[in-house]
Amino acid sequence: MKTIVYSFHKFEKPYFERANAGSHEMKYLDVKLSAHTAPLSKGFDAASLFVSDDASAQVLEILHQNGVRFLALRSAGFNNVDLKKAKQLGIRVARVPAYSPYSVAEHTVALMLALNRKLIRAHSRVTEQNFSLDGLTGFDMNGKTAGIIGTGKIGAVVARILHGFGCRLLAFDKIENEILKQRHHVQYTDCASLCRQSDIITLHVPLTDQTKYLIDNTCIEMMRKSVMLINTSRGALVNTKDVIQNLKNGKIGYLGIDVYEEEAGLFFEDHSEDILQDDTIARLMTFPNVLITSHQAFLTQTSLQNISTTTISNLDCFEENRILENEIEQ
Ligand code: NAI
Questions:
Q1: Could you identify which of 157, 198, 216, 229 might form a hypothetical disulfide with 239, taking C-beta atoms 3.0 to 4.6 angstroms apart as the criterion?
Q2: Atom 30 of ligand 1 has which residue's CA nearest to it?
Q3: pLDDT per position as a tens digit, 279-302
Q4: Atom of ligand 1 nearest to the CA of 175
Q5: SS3 label, residue 106
Q6: 329 has a pLDDT exceeding 90
C-alpha cells in the first residue's frame, strides 16, 4: 500500500526498514503534517503520523481529497487527531496502544532521581574539576509518599518501581487496579487528597477535555511545599504559567518534564542555531531545579521495534481488510 510517513526520524529508520521488508511502498518525509504539507499526500492510500503531527479537521480534509483513507499513528496518544472529523470523512485511524510502558516509566523515574540527586549539576561540576558537594544534597526516596495520577499501563509500572524503592504510594484514577492495591500497597484516593499528601507527584493520564490543566494554581495550592512534579504524559495536563509562578515562590521544589504544552515546532528538532522565541520554555530553562527532556521517554530499542512492527501490521490489516485490533473507537 502506498503510504506517506510524516515526521520520520533518523532513529526510526533501521527499525522501519526491517519491519516493512518492502511490503508497503513508503515515502519517508522528515516534515511534520500540517495544512501546508498535507498536499504532499496526493496519490497515497495511507499516512503514518507521529505525536507532533497536526491531524486537525482542515488537514484531514486535504488528506481525504488526496485519497488517504487510513491513518497509522506511530504513537499511543491520539490527541493530535480530530477523530470526529476522521469518522465523518471515512478515514480509519489505528495506533500503537502499548509499545513499552517500561520505556516511559523508567524515564519518569530517571527524571525523579536526576532531579533529587542533582545529577546534571554534579556532572557539570566534575567536568570543571569542581569536586565540592555543597548544594548537592538529595533525599531518600525510601519512605517518601509518591502520588501517581493515572495508573494505566505506564502509571502501573511507575508504581511497581517506586514500590521497590520503599515509597508509600497514593493513586488517582477513575479505574482502580486491584493488583496494584494488593501487591504494591497502592492506596487510591481523590486528586485533591493525593496532592495534599504527596512528596512526589507524577502524571500518567491521557490529555482529554477533563484532564487539560489538571495541574493549575488551585491544584498546586493544595500540594506540599517543595513538592516534586513530574510530567511524562502530555504537556497540557499542566498549566505551565502557573507552574512557573510556583517554581518562583518555592512551592514546587523540583520539576521534571518530558512534554510541554507548546512543544510542537520545538521538540524533536535541532534549534541550536535559532533565537528561541518561546519565552515560557526559556524561563523554565533558567531554573536550576527544572529538568527538561524533549519527549524522549519512549525512546528505547524495544519501543522503536514495537512501534515499527505494530504500525506495519496495522497497515497490513487495513490493506487486507482484516480486523484492525488497534483501531481507535471514533
Ligand atoms: P493508559 O490508557 O494505559 O492509562 C491511562 C490511565 O488514565 C487509565 O488508567 C485511565 O483510567 C486513566 N484516566 C483517563 N482519564 C482519566 C481521568 N479523567 N481521571 C482519572 N483517570 C483517568 O495509557 P498509558 O499507556 O499508561 O499512557 C499514559 C499517557 O502517557 C498517554 O496518554 C500519553 O499521553 C503518554 N505517553 C507519553 C510518552 C512519552 O514518550 N513521553 C509515550 C507514550 C505515552
A1: 216
A2: 233
A3: 999 999 999 999 999 999 999 999
A4: 11
A5: helix
A6: no
**Which residues fall within 8 angstroms of residue 121, CB to CB, at 6 or more apart?**
135, 136, 288
- Domains in the chain and their CATH numbers? 2-99+301-319 (3.40.50.720), 101-292 (3.40.50.720)
Nearest to 48 by CA among 80, 85, 94, 101: 94
Radius of gyration (C-alpha) of the chain in whole angstroms? 21
Q: Which atom of ligand 1 is nearest to the CA of 234?
A: 34
Supply 5's cell numbers.
Answer: 510517513
Residue with cell 491513518: 71
228: its cell numbers = 516534586
Tell me which of 173, 231, 237 to substitute to probe ligand 1's pocket, judged by most ligand atoms within 8 Å of the beta carbon.
173
Size of the chain, expressed as the number of residues it contains: 330
| 234 assigned to active site | yes
Q: Which residues line ligand 1 (CB under 6 A)?
A: 76-77, 98, 101, 104, 150-155, 173-175, 204-208, 210-211, 232-234, 258-259, 295, 297-298
- Indicate which residue's Cα is closest to atom 5 of ligand 1: 152
The residue whose grid cell reads 569536586 is 131
CA distances from 194 to 65, 198, 219, 227 (A): 48, 6, 10, 12
- How many Cα atoms occupy the beta-carbon half-sphere of 119 within 13 Å? 9
Q: What are phi and psi of 228, to 5 degrees?
A: -100, 125
295 is catalytic: yes
Choice among 221, 234, 273, 319 that is catalytic: 234
Contact (CB, 8 A) for 192 and 218? no
